[in-house]
Every structure is written in structure tokens, then in C-alpha cells.
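OP here, attaching both records as promised.
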Amino acid sequence: MKLKLPRPNLREAGDKVRETEFWKSVFRPGSIFRRGYKDTQRDRALAMMNNVLYHLHPVKIKRHGLKLTYTFCLGGLSFFLFVLLTITGIYLMFFYRPSADIGAAQAYSDMLQIRNSVFFGDLVRNIHRWGAHLMVFTVSLHMARVFYTGAYKPPREFNWVVGVILLFLTLGLSFTGYLLPWDQLSIWAVQVGTSLAGYSPLIANQVKFILLGGIEVGPETLLRWYVLHVLFLPFILVLFLAVHFWRIRKDGGISGPL
């Protein structure tokens, strides 16, 4: 006699998944993933306006969240420094070539030209350099402030994870930019960093090869880190930054733990 196995109930399984803490931390109650919405032109417009304008003009906020000593504007300063770095970085890209061929290392010569010949070149480069250091500093302080005030607690635990990802992306941008001058200090710093990556579990050799573009530091390394610095990492950071800003208002602003 054959035993009849019970057929899985997909609706009940979906309900159990939606009741888990992980699902609730990612999708807030009241979102379209939990209650649905009518597929009409008016409802689609309201969904867009509620998600965008809700961040720009919050309905209410707790009084202590408006105090300067509560946040010290560390999140706003971090975002301002990112915009500043984007503007100065675009300016420097007009005069920089990521070429490190033997006998014709254009990257180092272009850096010297930026410092000595380009109009306001040395000023813009120093603003970009010190702005990167300050951004790492302000982002770290911002994370410490969120932890100290308990603003990472539910229902903001998912946004805390997004903030940790943004911290690592900021460190990645700072480290990848360290190679671009292509001087001795940069080359040896990358040599040490990629050597540490070679100790990662399971895929150590693959990670090191991807970062170096070969078996040792060379022209391919500079090109890969240049692409990471000016395209890949900023693009990923902007995506997570948009989610981070949206979830700040969606989860209840900067008012600390509920």
C-alpha cells in the first residue's frame, strides 16, 4: 500500500515566512509586500509619492531627535563629504590616466602634473584626499553614535545592517583610491593588502588573483582598482545609500529606540 504524503501548502508556508523576524525587519508592516494594493493609476501614484516624499517631509519626529548633540549631524556630514568627493574626483579624472606600463607610468606622471601644472589641481587633490579621510572618520563616528544611542534596535535592525555595508564600502573606496598615485607607498600598501586577502578561507587564491589581475602587482592591478574606485564601489554605495535614507524615515526617523 502506497502512503500518501501531505501536499505542501504554499500559502501557509508563505505566511510563516512573513511572520519571521527577518522578514519583518526587511519589509515593514504596511508595505505592499504585506497588504497589497489596488493596481490603479491613482494607487500607483500614491505609492510613489508616499515612498519618496515621506523621507523629504516626515509627518512627525520626536523632540530629542532634533537636538544637535543627539546626532551631531554625522550622517549628513558623511553624505556631504561623499558628494564633495564625487565632484572633486570627477575633476581629477580629466587629468588622470590609469596606465602603469613599464617605462611609461602615466599614472604617476599625471599625478605630478595635477599637483604642479593643472589649475587648482593640487588644491582639488588635497580636498579629495583629506575629504576621504574625513569621510571614513565621520562614518565610523556615525556608526558609534547609532550604537551608543540604541538606534540600531528593532524596528531598525535592517537599516543597521545596511549601515554596516556602507561602512565597508567607504573603507573599500578609501583603500582603492590609495593605489591610484602609483608611488612606492601606494604599491607597497596594495602589496600588503592583497597579501592579507590571500588568507581568506576557501577562495584565497581566486580573491588575490581578482584583486591583482595576475600573480603580482602590475599594470592590471592599477586598472582594476581604478574601475573599482570610480565605477563599481560608488555605484553600489549609491544604491545602499538610497535604501538607507528611505529606511530612516520608514522606520521612524532619528528618534532612537521605540
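Record two, same layout:
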Amino acid sequence: MLNISFIKNSVLTYIISALCAGGVLAAENVHQSVGQIADWVGIAVVLVFALAYVLVILEEKIHLRKSKPVMLAAAIIWALIGFAYSGDPGHLEDAIRHNFLEYGELFFFLLVAMTYVNTLLDRGVFDALRDWLISRGYTYRALFWWTGILAFFISPIADNLTTALIMCAVVLTVAEDNPKFVSVACINIVVAANAGGAFSPFGDITTLMVWQKGVLEFQQFFQLFVPSLVNFLVPAVIMQFFVPKERPALGSSNGHALKRGGLTTLFLFLMTIVTAVCFHNFLHIPPVFGMMAGLAYLKIYGFFLRRYVSSWSQATEVPPGSKDDPYDFDVFAKIAQAEWDTLFFFYGVIMSVGGISFLGYLDIVSQDVYGTLSPTTANTLVGVLSAVIDNIPVMFAVLTMYPEMSETQWLLVTLTAGVGGSLLSIGSAAGVALMGQARGKYTFFSHLKWTPVISLGYAASILVHLLIST
């Protein structure tokens, strides 16, 4: 972990230095756009955010949840701006409300999606899929391909983190005594899940932000399907030659039965996605309202599902609410199981970056990066940077800067921010989670060994996208 922190901190230090070095230019931008603010405020704001992000990086070492430092940083940043700002108070209030509205839409969208995923887990849908794979008795190589392909096609609907965890559970169940295979399979799963999430607004937080911002329409994301597939296939084809053809000892499934309502919940989730898309495309209503309608679908279905509890319990003599009760369902319990630390982390990031943008610093970065480099080069670097820091603040910064780019280039930065995290195990939530799940077998350095091969897929996906789009 020391080396990982060193890599992230080195890049972060470079960014801080670049921002602070532009202090004079930042002050000019501030004076032109938001009134007289002391120069020290801008530097203090950047340092506060940098310190908070260092604590985020050190989360596993100091055991401080990542949401806590960024939430505090957001409060300090806007307090500093409010203390030093001498312009129109309404302008400052509008800026805060604008950023908070963006977060609010993202929050409720993700909350509904997380609730559905938790419900699908509770109803045994993913367990049934895992048991089915285990019972097939596939060879190592077949299992390598099946877990990768399923990760690629499930992550656009669910999310890359949940998908990766499910597929990793399959690998560990059937091949726990083969650490070499577990390592390669986990790398393949991470790449596949991140690639699959890149061509769907529902597959990754970055694609969701791009869609909700209105930069790209829902159907335009599917132009990234072929580049995303290339991103997954290029390293997978190479890595498969290092996977044995032998058949592992048949793993034993846990015998999870698909609970009542599992397939219905899956159908309702798909209908929720359809509702969100239709609200956005045909009614010009923000997609989050469609997602909230989808939550109503689940809540109403949960009401009817619970009506069977008493009669079933009496017939089987199983106490209502027992873990053996397949009808017991509480939608508010699933909402409570959402990843609250992640949701509040997004709040801290969005509000902090919004404050930095208010001071004009993102204008400087936009001029320095998108003004001096070609859009293709700049967007390629965004993907590389997202592998070291995190794609959420990087993509939000790009959306806040909103550089003038063609549709092809907006699709490119969406692709690179989504798949760039696969270059390192620490570059995506899927990679970090699997390092914990397959501890000792899938590590930072085992992934780093395959980074050159993954880079080939990264470069190939960019090339394919540019060839298709021209």
C-alpha cells in the first residue's frame, strides 16, 4: 500500500503545484468573474481539497471513511469563498445551489439503482447465476471467458463494482487453490466490467454524469460498444494463453434458491431504466424522475409481496421475518443498505470541485490542457489520470470546464474515463474491491504486471473509436 500511496500522491502533488503556480492567472480570472477575492483564498481552497484527497487515498491505512474528509473539505472551501467574496451574494448562492442540484439528481438516481441491486441480491438472482456457473464444471479457460463475458454484459445494467464482486465469487469458489488463475481471472473481470460500463449511462458513475448533464443522448453511448468490446477482448485474448486448459475440481454451490419476486424485480429494474430513458428522451424530464417512478414500482410490488407473509408462515410454521421466509421483504431495508459512504463521497467531491471551479482554477486547467493539446491527446490523458486518481472527480472537472469538443471527442473522453481505470488495480472501484475479496491472490503488483497488455487494449479502443467516428 505504501507504493500505491506514493504513486497517487506524486500525481496529486504535480497537480497541486500546477494549480498553485497559476495563482496570478487565477486571481485575474477571479477578479473578472466573481469579484474581489484575496489571492490566498484560492491557494487555500486547493490545498484543503488536496489534503482531503490525500486522506481519501490513505483510507485503507488510517481506516477513515473517504466521505468524511471530502465532506468537511466542501464545507471549508465554500466557507472560505463566502468569507472572502465581495460580489453579488445572489451569484454565490446560485453557484452553490447549481452544484447541489447536480449532486441531488445524481444522489437519487444512484440511490434507486443501489436499492434495486440490493433487492436483486436479497432475492437471490445473482446467487442463482453464480450457482449455475459453478454447476457447469467448466475448464479454467472456459471459466475465464464466461466470467469476463458476463461481467462485460451485466455491468451496463447493474454497475461495474457489483458485477465484478459476483464474478470474482465464482472464480474463488471453483479455483481458490489456484492463486495464479484467480489473479488473471480477476484482472480480466476488472477490465471487462469497466469496459462494459463505458457504453451505458447506467454502467458507471462517469457515464451517468455525462448523460445527466445532457452532453450525450442515451442512444449515443452505444456508439462506444465496439471500442469497449475491443478494450476487453485485446487483453483477454492475450491473457487466455496463460490460463490452463485443465478442469478444476467441481466447486460446490451454496444451493441458493431464487426467492419469490427475483425475476419480477429484475423486470421492474429494466422497466425503471426504460422509464428513465423515456422521461429524458421524449418528455424532456430529467432521468432521475423516471428512476424515482421506478422506486415506486418496487415499493408497490413489495407491498403485495409482503401480503403473502402471514399465510405462508402459518402454512409452513416459519416465523414471519425469518431468514427462511422467502416472502419477507422490506424496501426501506434495501434503501438503508445503499452505499452511503460512496453517496456522501460524491457530495464532497462535487461541491469541492464546484468551489474550485467558482474561483476560476478549472478555467486555467482547461486552457492549459485543452487549449494547448489536441482534444484526442487531452482526452487520452484524462483516462490515464483516472487510473491514478479517480475517474469521478476527473470527469466532473471535465464536465465543469465543458471545453468545446465535437460529439466524437465527448464520446472519447467518456470512453477513456471509463476504461482508463483498468490500467491499475487502484484505478476503479471494481479493482479495489477485488483486491480485498481475493486478498493475497489479486494484488496491485499482479495487476501491474499485465498493465502493458491492458494498455494495448486501451490504445486499440481509442483507435477503433476514432476510425469508426471518421
